[in-house]
Every structure is written in C-alpha cells, then in structure tokens.
Amino acid sequence: MAANLRRVIPLAVLLFVGLCLPALAKSKAESAADAIGKADAGWAAAAAAKDLDTSVDVCGPDAAILVPDAPAAVGKDAIRKWFQEIYATPNFKLAWHATKTEAASSGDMGYSTGVYDLSYTDASGKQVSDHGKYVTVWKKQPDGSWKVVRDIFNSDGAGH
Hints:
- Helix content is about 40%, strand content about 35%.
- About 20% of the residues are buried.
- The protein starts with a helix and ends in a 5-residue tail after the last strand.
- The protein has helices at about 1-50, 50-55, 75-85, and strands spanning about 60-65, 75, 95-105, 110-120, 125-140, 145-155.
- The protein has one domain: Nuclear Transport Factor 2, Chain: A (Roll), CATH 3.10.450.50.
C-alpha cells in the first residue's frame, strides 16, 4: 500500500499543477490586459491635454506610429516631431478610448483597440472632424511599465 501511495502522490501533484497552470496563465494575461487598458487611458489623457512629453514617453525606444496618408513616425525623435506638429494644429482635439485590451499568456505583450474622434481647423479655416479606429501594440518593460511598440489608426471615412 505504501508503494502504491508513493506512486499516486507524485501523479496527483503533477495533475494538480497541470490543471492550475492554465488558470495562472489566464490570470496573468487578464492582469496584463488591465494594465494595458490603464496605459492606453493614460496615453489618451496625455494626448487630450496635448502633453507632449508624456505622449512621447509612453512610446518605447523603437516605437512606430503608422500615420495614415504619411510616412510612419519611427523612433522617439520622429514621434516627438509628429506630436509637436499635430498639437500645433489650430483647434486640434483628440480623444480615444479602448474597446478591447488583450495580452499574451506570457503577460509581456498585448494590444488595445478602440475608437477615436479628432477635430481641427485646416489651413483654409474649415473645421474638420474625423472618427475612426486604432490598434496599439504594447510591450511590458523591465521596470513593469507598458510602452507602445506600434500604433496604427485610420478613419471610418466621411459621413460615419
């Protein structure tokens, strides 16, 4: 009986651990997804306030913002320049919010996706408004913070 017990206990432990690991991975991914949602909301608040330094600092060193109808802004210097230009646009307003956040089971990468609204006055003095969607890829940093790796957005088009 003792010999059988010595064989059964390790198997029971392995089975228990095997059953628990997926739940732990899911919990880690859910926690990371929540952190991504908070990082996304913080970045949106910085953009709404036209806070240049925070808007740029949220981006990782090799980040890229894939701008519609323009070359990508790759790296912090290009991203800073892009934010400076859009924040200087007359009556520029930008708001976005995530509708979904998800993270890899490893808890170190994830994405946010959502919708945005922006408006500004163009060079002719006309008020322009746009509504669209975005996807942002996030990477967890060694210090535990989340940084943008890639950001892409596009318009839903006129009349939407």
